[in-house]
Amino acid sequence: MMVSLTARRLPRFAPLAIGAGAVAVAAGLSFGLGLGGPVMTGILAALLFVAALFGTAWRVEGSRAARNRVASALIYGAFVLAVIPLVSVMFTVVDKGWARLDGTFFGTSMNNISAFDAHGGAYHAIIGTLEQVGIAVLITVPLGILGAVYIVEYGRGKLASWIRFFVDVMTGIPSIVAGLFILAFWVMVVSPMFSADGAPTLSGFAASLALSVLMLPTVVRSTEEMLRLVPNELREGSYALGIPKWKTITKIVLPTAGPGIVTGVMLAIARAAGETAPVMLVAGVNSAIAFNPFESQSSLSYYVFDQATDSSKYAEPRAWAGALTLVAIVLTLTVVAKLLARRSKLSR
Amino acid sequence: MAKRIEASGVTAYYGAFKAIDSVSMTIEPKSVTALIGPSGCGKSTFLRSINRMHEVLPGARVEGRLTVDHQDIYERDVDVTAVRRMIGMVFQRPNPFPTMSIFDNVVAGLRLNGVRGKAALEEAAEKALRGANLWNEVKDRLKKPGGGLSGGQQQRLCIARTIAVEPQIVLMDEPCSALDPISTLAIEDLISQLKDKYTIVIVTHNMQQAARVSDRTAFFSIEKTGDPGRLVEYDDTQKIFTNPAERKTEDYITGRFG
């Protein structure tokens, strides 16, 4: 029997036409019959589109092609649904944060700004976020990468699997618990040893420690996954040249895993920069400009929380501007890190 | 400065599993020795024992005596990195370092073992690439990544990388099994050139290749799955392929088993 390789196909414009038709019918039904508004139109249009597409394709192209079209439509739909919240958040933050994004916002603090004052800024909070996250990165990146190197390259038997287990447990620690831990351990027990009068000190550094507790498991686990992806053949190729193990790891394995490790670190930074609870507990919520991380500080995430819950008509725009600044900082760091990681890898 | 390898009673384990049992053979300097045999017969394990790569795997160990010019390489005070610099290895799949350029790949062994100086490295790279018959193909793109080369070129890059550290022995573990016939021919030509300077041991599944490139051939075999591999016969390649002493060797090379 001759199998035909060609089949009847819907014209290219067909899905578009069906889509337009579905929207028109849905709009007519919801508004004309008073079933609902724009949201109803959207849902109805989507359902009508899938049904009409399936029916038309079934008649013209046959059942396999019809199922293919419906599956494609669902996948595109899922993508759109996933992107909507992201775009919506970005749009809202930019739209509402734009108003207060001025020189005063970046140049002044909230010191002596009351509910009746229109000015006030987030300079102190930006300093706090940059310093606290920066210190947390300095602590967690070396520690996390070395920990992952131990687990993947050196760890054998019980100890390595116990470390892995506890890293997994750490991943699930709620940020408020990390904050309480630092409050109980660092602020109440350790910091009095360093202060002149023996009193506990709330500080930006304590917030860094709490953020480190949250970042460390992310850095360890993502680095570990990346190191495992490095093919063993590269390690063997290196050993076979008489290169010692530590140089194989530092010069061959880590550079190969580099871009992936950077991505993991960026995820950890993004998480830490947005944490509010630990900062509120241990940083001392200073509303004045403070560069010294061993004194009390604020942070952007706490600033957003503080302004958003303040009952003043001037506070809300400040909260949105703070949120926009925070998103911009994380985004900028991510882009810069990605560029650096790409530059370190050779182009083809 | 090629060296003689003497193995006596070399037995290798993967954990509790004995992979090869008491292999004894002498490999002459400046010769090509082929190790052939069915899958799982331990020929690669034996090869990896010669430069102490076997022990890289967790739980793997080697017993017996393996000397290179009368120096036992498994003695306690032997530096394993020095052994591997003296005995280079080329693997089945080409494995250039992906983050490095062609040039950096070739000099990786030198640079990471502490050799400094741009001129010295450039000279060594050219010499090694010429030695691996790759210089003319890559001399204009030394700064490009090694991963951009074809499979056969990558394998010659790995050979260049190996000979750049000036070993005395080169081990090859099925170096052509991932390559097309033309690249295979290029590697085989290269092997016959390298023979003038190095002692070469090559594992191959391709019996025509063993017959083409080697002076001596060792046939390994196993009784059944789970048994350790043994050296069945070791003789001149000519003799192994025309008039083997053992029935099992004849069965294998004529394709009746394995």
Could you give the topology of this structure?
The complex is a heterodimer of chains A (348) and B (258).
Chain A: H1 14-32, H2 38-61, H3 63-97, H4 103-107, H5 123-154, H6 158-171, H7 175-194, H8 204-229, H9 232-239, H10 245-273, H11 277-282, H12 300-308, H13 315-344
Helix pairs in contact in A: 1-2, 2-3, 3-13, 5-6, 5-8, 5-10, 5-12, 6-8, 7-8, 8-10, 9-10, 10-13, 12-13
Chain B: E1 5-14, E2 17-27, E3 32-36, H1 43-50, E4 60-68, E5 71-72, H2 80-86, E6 87-90, H3 102-111, H4 118-131, H5 135-138, H6 151-164, E7 169-173, H7 181-194, E8 199-203, H8 207-213, E9 216-221, E10 230-236, H9 237-242, H10 247-253
Parallel strand pairs in B: 3-8, 3-9, 6-7, 7-8
Antiparallel strand pairs in B: 1-2, 1-4, 4-5, 9-10
Helix pairs in contact in B: 3-4, 3-6, 4-6, 6-7
What do you see in this structure?
The complex is a heterodimer of chains A (about 350) and B (about 260). Chain A is mainly α and about 350 residues long. Chain A folds into two domains: about 90 residues, no CATH class; about 240 residues, MetI-like fold. Chain A is about 75% helix and about 0% strand. The two termini of chain A are about 50 Å apart. With about 260 residues, chain B is of the alpha/beta class. Chain B has a domain of about 180 residues: Rossmann fold, CATH 3.40.50. Helices cover about 35% and strands about 25% of the residues of chain B. Chain B has ten helices and ten strands. Chain B is globular and about 55 Å long. Chain B starts with a strand and ends in a 5-residue tail after the last helix. The mean pLDDT of chain B is about 90. The interface between A and B is medium-sized, with 26 and 33 residues.
